[in-house]
Design a protein that fits this description.
The protein is an all-alpha fold and 511 residues long. The chain is built from 18 helices and no strands. The longest helix has 28 residues, at 483-510.
């Protein structure tokens, strides 16, 4: 054990068995904190946990049994007339306890006790505001990070409150002097534009997650909006939401009344309840889109390639989920076209040698977007008495673009000799199989009056369906990843040959 750590441990041992008087409690609490910090810095997390939990228990027991602030360790080196007031002692004791909770939150994070870590982080943030012991930028960053935990639990009211508080407190940076020790300066003070952009990105995730969760609630078994479910949820929300929010909000509010007013005004800019129709979804979308622009001001493609692309992908995802709420198919197509317009230029400019994984992501997203647009154009065409040449040309064009990007993705999986892998890695198994399945379906959707070309398309489609069936027969462990696609592929492998024979017979009769 290092000498410094041993000295602190020995001092702590001398105090064992001594009563928890005002004299000893402040000393012991500080030593337990220091030991917890030292052990955590040496990656002895469980040892650190023991000391910090002891400090927490000591604080709770002392406050229960006495309640008056203990002597601060520094007072032993002060003349009587220099001794601290009770108010200052209380402030320092509470600050030490806040530090205990802060380090416990980190310890629980290391131990992957995520829920407990979030609880302690939330309590720490509340106490820092209560006792005015925080750096605005650091506090805002921690609150924004905590919001992402609440998002993972779909606790949107709590997530929004954390983000609103983060935005309000961040606005104090450089304006409000910190109540922390005067000889310290906030470490992030020089990085304000970046921190602001990071908080904006958390807001984007909030809006995107809220919309995506609403979609899950509303979609039917083919991925379309279910009107009956929509009416049911609207009626249910009217009855329950007000009472539900009152009860939960008491537990999460940050800060004093003046801060609360500012936070409340920030919260009112975006809902925390599931949007259930296009108008409600659009309001959330617009807030998210504003934060996209704010984040892109700092995370520009020149210097922050990966961050910039992730923000653009989130922007695309916002359009995608908004399109779900749109009933008009033509307007839906236009929303997906916006996605194409923002993703294709980025994809084109990326060097495949350095950005292979990102290019694969964009290939799949572009292919899926063209595929979705093609489906919408087919649905529009089905409403017409007769397909006109313009619609046919548009459907075929969209299908060809989707095939192009799916093929580019599949080609990226080939080895340097251009050979497709016999067995796919787990992380690309489903994307590759879905790409094969969609290409098979797309060839079946191509419209042509040339029977010979139609037979070629059907043969190509059959080959892709067959690939899926054969692959899963050879590697049965792949089946759970693509059960639905496999079932449909088996059906098509059985049906297509007969359809092709009928078409050949029809062609032969005209020869």
């Amino acid at each position: 054990m290092p000498l410094g750590m041993q000295c602190i441990s020995n001092m702590f041992s001398l105090k064992r068995g001594v009563d928890r008087s005002a004299c000893s409690s402040g000393h012991t609490d500080a030593k337990l904190n220091n030991l917890g910090i030292l052990w955590s810095q040496r990656d002895e997390i469980e040892t650190a946990q023991t000391y910090l939990e002891s400090a927490e228990a000591l604080y709770n027991q002392y406050m229960k049994e006495d309640g008056n602030p203990p002597l601060d360790p520094s007072e032993h080196f002060m003349a009587e007339e220099e001794k601290l007031t009770d108010q200052e002692r209380s402030k320092r004791f509470e600050k030490a306890y806040t530090h205990t909770l802060y380090y416990l939150a980190q310890v629980y994070q290391h131990l992957e006790m995520i829920e407990k870590a979030a609880q302690y982080c939330h309590t720490t943030l509340k106490r820092q505001l209560e006792y005015c012991g925080y750096y605005p930028v650091e506090w805002a960053r921690n609150a924004a990070t905590l919001s992402q935990y609440y998002l993972s639990k779909e606790c949107f009211m709590e997530a929004r409150h954390c983000l609103a508080a983060a935005s309000v407190i961040f606005s104090q940076a450089g304006q409000v002097p910190s109540a922390e020790d005067s000889d310290e300066t906030e470490p992030d003070q020089q990085d304000l534009p970046e921190r602001k952009a990071e908080i904006a990105r958390c807001w984007i995730k909030y809006c995107l997650n809220l919309l995506q969760s609403a979609r899950k609630l509303l979609e039917d078994n083919i991925g379309e909006l279910d009107p009956d479910r929509q009416l049911e949820l609207k009626a249910q929300r009217k009855k329950e939401e007000d009472e539900k929010e009152k009860g939960r909000k008491k537990a999460v509010l940050f800060g004093t009344s003046d801060i609360c007013d500012s936070v409340l005004a920030m919260e009112e800019k975006v809902s925390s309840v599931y949007p259930l129709d296009f108008q409600e979804a659009r309001e959330v979308f617009l807030v998210g889109q504003n934060y996209v622009q704010e984040a892109k001001e700092f995370f520009q493609v020149d210097g922050y390639v990966t961050d910039h692309i992730e923000i653009v992908q989130d922007h695309s995802a916002l359009f995608k989920v908004l399109a779900f709420f749109e009933e008009d198919y033509e307007r839906r197509c236009k929303m997906h076209k916006r996605r194409i317009d923002m993703l294709e230029p980025i994809y084109t400019d990326l060097n495949p040698q350095y950005y292979l994984l990102i290019r694969r992501q964009l290939q799949c997203e572009l292919a899926d977007t063209y595929y979705e647009m093609m489906d919408l154009k087919v649905a529009i065409g089905n409403r017409l008495e007769k397909l006109d040449s313009h619609t046919v040309k548009k459907i075929n064009s969209l299908a060809q673009f989707a095939i192009k990007y799916y093929e580019l993705f599949l080609d990226s999986l080939r080895n340097p000799d251009k050979v497709f892998p016999e067995k796919l890695e787990e992380d690309v198994l489903r994307p590759a199989m879905v790409a094969k399945f969609h290409i098979a379906r797309l060839y079946g959707k191509l419209i042509t009056s040339d029977s010979k070309k139609q037979l070629e398309n059907m043969q190509t489609s059959l080959e892709y369906y067959t690939f899926l069936v054969d692959y899963c027969e050879k590697y049965p462990d792949a089946v759970p990843a693509i059960e639905t696609e496999l079932e449909l592929s088996k059906e098509m492998v059985n049906l297509l040959p007969a359809s092709m024979e009928r078409l050949r017979a029809k062609v032969s009769s005209f020869v």
